[in-house]
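ok so for the tutorial part 2 we go from a plain amino acid sequence to predicted structure tokens. step 1 is just haveing the sequence, like this:
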Amino acid sequence: MKKNLLFHIILIVFLFQVGCKNTSEPKMAIEKIIEISQETKFKEELTLNQLEGTWYYKNSPYDGYALTLHENGTLAEKVGFFKGKREGVAEKWSKAGVLRVEYHYKNNRLEGSYKSWWENGELAQEANYTNGNMNGVEKKWYSDGQLAKQRQLVSGKEEGLQKAWLENGTLYVNYEAKNGRIFGLRRANSCYQLENEKVVRDE
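step 2 — the prediction. this is what the tokens look like for a chain of 203 residues:
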């Protein structure tokens, strides 16, 4: 009798432990990091198959970086490719060698941060892309660092508060976008807000 009781106790403990292991949360999948070849070719050496969206070098999907030069011989653009698709960081420079734009690709689509700078090094634009569409907050600045525009976007479309300022800091665009509709004034200092799709002016 005691042996049977002990056996049942051990069995219950074992089943409890197995059940706990089975109900544990699944492990997060680790995204594979793509390593781009350090090979470089001039962009004019590549051929684009527009139907496939694939870039070829000598009839093979290109792996490496494509370079473009300015007329004065300085580097103008550098874009990474993996199996013929644009991948990883892409950069553009001015003729003076100043980095003007930095953005990222994932399987031929813009993905992640997008930044641009004025020739004086001041940040000009900052945004984020998801699957080729601008998402979240986009900001633009004047060359002196003054904020010029701030937009809220969802899948490339304006959604939420949208604002813009003159170079002296005066607010001159202030409206809210919702479901493709505009509420408020595009060029005014007056502030409006959206309540149940009715335009209500702040007192």
